[in-house]
Structures are given as C-alpha cells and as structure tokens.
Amino acid sequence: MSRRHPALGRDRLFDLVDDVVVELGSRTARALLMVVAVGLSSGSLLASVGISMSAGQQIEADIAASTLDVVTAQVVPPTTAAAAVVADDTGPGRIVTILPEDTDERVARHDLVDAAGRRLDVSGSATAEVTRTAVRPDPATAGARAAVTPVVGVSAGYLDAARAQVSTDMQWLLDTDEDVVLLGRGAARALDVPLTGNLTGVQVWLNGEPQDVVGLVSGGTGGLEDAVLLPYRRGLELVGNDREAAVLVRTLPGAGAPVADVLAVTLRPDAPERLDISRVASVDTLRTGVATQLDRLAAWMGTVLTALTILLIANSMVVAVTARTAEIGLRRALGFSRGRVAQVFLAEGSLIGLLGGLVGSAFAAGSVVLICLANGWSVLLSPWLVVLGPVVGAGVGLAASMYPASRAARISPALAVRSD
Fold first, then answer.
1. Is 37 within the bounds of a domain?
2. Are 398 and 340 members of one domain?
3. How far apart are the C-alpha atoms of 348 and 22, rounded to whole Å?
4. Do 58 and 159 belong to one domain?
5. In the list 19, 32, 33, 181, which could disulfide-bond 211, CB 3.0-4.6 Å?
6. Same domain flag for 45 and 82
7. Are 298 and 381 part of one and the same domain?
8. Which residues of 268-304 are buried (b: 16+ CB within 10 A; e: fewer)?
9. How confident is the model at residue 13 (pLDDT cuts 50, 70, 90)?
10. Strand 209-219 and strand 203-206: pairing?
11. Which among 267, 287, 302, 408 is positioned nearest to 347, based on CA atoms?
C-alpha cells in the first residue's frame, strides 16, 4: 500500500500559498478594496459590541446613581389596645422602646450601608422649652421662640446619614447622655447664639436646665438647621418611648432596594412587622432590560454589516472567477483536481478575510476608545474583542468564497480553454 510522502503535502501547501500571493499581488487594487470591506464590517461589528458594552456599563452606573440611596424605618403606631398597654407601662423613670439599643451598630454592619442613625422628635411629644438664659421670658415670647426651635433627639450617625455638617468634632457626644446640644444655624440665630467664634462656655436652657452648646449644624435633611439637637438618649428620657422614632439609613449608590428588603429583620428579627420601611423601587429589571436591548442592537447591526460584506466579497470573487476562466481551464488541463481549484479561491477569501480582520480589530479598538472619551464614558475594551477580529474576518472571507470556489471547481476544462 503506497503512502503519500510528507514532503509532497508541504510542497502543495507552499504552491497554494504562492498561487494566492501571486494572484492577490497581480490584482492589488481589488484585493485592497476587499480587505478594507472586511475590515470595516468586522471592525464595525466589534466596535458596536464594544461601544454597547461601554454604554451599558455607563447606563447602569447612571441608573444606580439616580436611584434613592436613603431608606427610613419608622415605628409602626400601636393599635388602641397596644397603646393602652404602653401607656400603662410608661411611668416615671420607665422607658418603652421598640428600636434596640444598638440600632445604629446593627445597621452599620451591613456592607451596603454608608451611615445610619436614629431620630426622635421631642417637641410635640413632651415638654421641651429652649431659652437662651435661665430666666424664662414671658409666655408670649416663649411660645414664639419654641415654635421656631423644635427639639430633636438624634444619634451621631444620624447627622452622617442626613449629610449634615458640624462646626466642631464633638458630634460623638450625641451618643452619650451628657447635658449638651448642637444647634442648627437657624435655631442659633433664633436663640441669639453667635454663629462664629469659640463656643466654649456658651449655654442654652432646656426646661430650665443648662445645656452646653458643643457645635453648630448646617445643611442636611429633615429641618436640622432650625432645630436644637439633643443626644438621642436624652430625647428618649424626655418622651418616655420611641413610638415617634425613625431610623435614617444612607446606602451606597444603587443599594437602597436591597437594604430596604432586610432592614426590618436586621433591627427586629423577632418582630419585623413593628417597623415600617420606606419602599425603594428596584431598578435591576430596568438595568437588565437596557443591557439586553443594547446587546440585541449591536448583534443586529453586526449581522447586517457582515451579511452585506459577504455578498460584496462573493460578488467580487464571482467576477474574478469569470475573468480567470481560461486560467482555471489551464489548471484543470495540467492535472488540478476540482478540489485543488476550489482550494485556491477558498484560500484567497480566507487570507483577505484574515487581513481585513486585523484591520477591523485596530478600527474597533480605536473607535471604542475615541467614542468613549468623546462622551466621557469609562472605556471598557475587552481583549477578546481585539483577538476576535482576525477570526471573524477569516470566517467572513471563507464564507464569502464558498460559492465562487464551488463555481470555479465546476468549470469544464475544454470549455474554459476555448473561452478566450
């Protein structure tokens, strides 16, 4: 049984490569046009995918940043019967609470939480009259003054969650039960407390008891600029219960929904129904939908461009087959089989596609970078996009050359030789 010598296979491969190079070199303009066509199609496909990925990442970041990052938990008002029980249990020195003592710490342990703290509005629930001096003014003045200086008990974490600024570093005193207050700038003006200078020795009186002013508060949410802020424990002592208390949670961008889902269980695992959690709409479905639509758009654009390129190259190579009919007939007369004739055109198409794919990779990478920079996006360029360019190009070239190669292989040698 005869065996084909390995050298014969190598010679045929070298002859095939030589034929393809000579043919492309003799028709340089046509070859360059087809390389550019493949480069533009494969590059546009890869660029559309890359731009879609970068745009999707930017849209997800924008959606996440636009979602609410604040969650609140409020104590559910008790029923009539429960309120009567609470009233019976509440007495001198007895405090009834729904929120645990370590509320701030429990919430802050969550990885998606930036800051958290408690708030209890004292005014309206207990007597809380704030004056600038120990001498109480007349009732008319006191009433007006009390109306513009609400008293609120807060923890230190609440100011962080509310994004309030404190003029000193004494915010931590709000987690103690010391006789201190922080004044909102509006409340300080109402109480004639200076807004500049050292606050050492400055006091206000709460229900006739002196309170050291340890800082001024500006900004933030919840009307803090017009309030007198007590340590949360002091406010709880004045009210006697936390039925009007609330927990403010500041989450990381886009994390409002997942934090809201677990907040009640985190605070009261034994009775989560005792807390009313603000609802934060989840945008996960929207983000997934946007990413899916962008991927579909990129896929359809790439498919159309690739199909047009395949038709363009196939048409060009069919014309080339017609122009080279005599050459094909001569090859067949010299002993070339149908398969070897087809191999020449398949190799030409693959080589053109491979070169076009390299051009496409460079085009895609440059397009993605330039478009992202022009729009201020973060560039997301996956290495596989660059590597995939030559593969896509070679595939396009091979697919486009299949029909021309099949047509060339079916040409009759006798008719081909007489065609000129």
1. yes
2. yes
3. 10
4. no
5. 181
6. no
7. yes
8. beeeeebbebbebeebeeebeebbeebeeebeebbee
9. low
10. antiparallel
11. 408
Closest by Cα among 88, 110, 86 to 98: 86
Task: Fill in the amino acid letter for 102.
Answer: D
The 3-state DSSP class for residue 254 equals coil
- What's the pLDDT score for residue 100? 92
Give yes or no: residues 50 and 75 share one domain: no
Distance CA 30, CA 318 (A): 13
Q: How far is CA 356 from the centre of its chain?
A: 35
**pLDDT per residue over 190-240, tens digit each?**
998 988 778 888 999 998 899 999 999 998 888 899 999 999 999 999 999
Residues 117 and 23 placed together within one structural domain of the fold: no
Q: Phi and psi of 387, rounded to 5°?
A: -70, -30
Report which of 65, 171, 67, 48 is spatially closest to residue 117, judged by C-alpha positions.
171
Q: How far is CA 253 from CA 57, 68, 396, in A?
A: 15, 8, 44
The pTM of the full predicted model, rounded to 2 decimals, is 0.55
Domain boundary among 198, 231, 252: 252
Q: What is the pLDDT of residues 167-190, one digit of tens each?
A: 888 999 999 999 999 999 999 999
Q: Do the domain assignments include residue 228? A: yes
In a domain, 128, yes or no: yes
Task: Collapse the DSSP code of 25 into the 3-class scheme (helix H, G, I; strand E, B; otherwise coil) and give the result.
Answer: helix
Q: Which two tokens mark 287?
A: 């983000």
